[in-house]
Amino acid sequence: MTATTHENLHSRQLQQDVPHRPTSPWLWMALIVAMFAAAFVWLRFANQEDVAPAPVGERMLPATETPVATTAPAARTAAPANSPRRSAPAVSNREARPLASNAKPTYPPAALRSGVQGSVVASLNVDTRGNVTQASIVSRSGERSRDLDRAVINTVQGWKFQPAMHEGRAVASVVRVPVDFRTEQR
To answer: What global pTM score does this model have?
Structure first.
């Protein structure tokens, strides 16, 4: 039996006796995939509370079966009624959301007969219980019509909302609602 010293472990002969095997390319690919997966998971869950609310133009109005006046955002993001819901984490910050049971503004018959078309944007003050406390028209495009303005104001004053939340508490907020009145269906 021979004793191995430190000098003997680093000798050229021992290094030549042990074959050096290169690292498998599969191992490198697995390492890269694992790093990307870890980065994705970290990015997905790191800043969930810092999500900005949707711009006014992308907010959803309640959907109805037969739209008479079309709303700008339509119901693009509405989920089907029979889709399974996932439990959501507690919301700390969010904008006020209109309830699906809210009626859409109807096209006034006099304006429809005379071919008046245009877009109206209403500004709604929503209290902490989700009720509209004040509604006003903030902008118009197309033909100006008091009938269109009145139809929007009369409808949205009765709307109910899920109130806006800030740090887990209901707060009063201002919501802008765009409504398009067009005589032809596109």
So the answer is: 0.50
